[in-house]
Amino acid sequence: MMYRKSVVAAVAALSLGFGTMCTATFAQDAANPTGKQIPDKNPSDADLQQKEAMQEKMKQDLMSNFNDADFVTVASLANQAEIDAAKAALAKTTNDDVKNFAQHMIDDHTAAGAELKALADGKGWQVSDRSDIKHMLALKEMNKMNGPDFDKAYSSQQVADHQDAVALFKLAADKASDADLKAFASKEVPTFETHLKMAQDLENKVSSVTLAK
């Protein structure tokens, strides 16, 4: 039990402290168009890989050994990733379908995140206001794209992410030991199933645009 608490605390620390470090690095990219690295401020590739692997292990462990606190941490990381990606989509796309979808994601995931935080605060669980490192890095790559290329990458990522979200929240609805958390997860499953269908429809639409060009 002490080991699991230490893992939760470590991942939460990564999502907050190290997430801040990554966010600062990505902000430097935008403010430094020469592409030259700023010494002593960028995390190394090894650091990124280590932290990403730790977060991914926590997510995978949930499938075989579900734990309420771990689920809350993983869900909050994933939820913020959806908001960050949607905000990027609103800033970059000129496609109205992508804009509408992205705004829908911001609205729904902001509401879900607030509800999860309120629940977690009352139970002493850790939540993150940062995305996980895997999605931070994926978003950094997507931000290098423009037009239909960005739209296609964004919509494809949304399909994959919401497939994961549906599976994760169904697991929590079945396995959570806390009644309030079980109820929250059960309530969100239909929402994420709707998001998945919307993402699949969007992916088909933007793929058609790409093929037409």
What does this entry show, briefly?
The chain is an all-alpha fold.
The count of strands amounts to 0
Mean pLDDT: 83
Per DSSP, the total helix count is 7
Structural class: mainly alpha
Q: Give the SSE string.
A: HHHHHHH
Question: How far apart are the first and last residues' alpha carbons, in Å?
Answer: 56 Å
Structural shape: globular
Q: Largest sheet at a glance?
A: none
Based on CA atoms alone, the radius of gyration comes out at 18 Å
What this model shows, in words?
- The chain has helices at 2-31, 45-64, 68-92, 96-123, 133-142, 147-175, 179-212.
- The chain has 213 residues and is mainly α.
Quickly list its features.
about 210 residues, mainly alpha, disordered N terminus
What's the layout of helices and strands?
Blueprint: H1 2-31, H2 45-64, H3 68-92, H4 96-123, H5 133-142, H6 147-175, H7 179-212
Helix pairs in contact: 1-2, 1-3, 3-4, 3-6, 4-7, 6-7
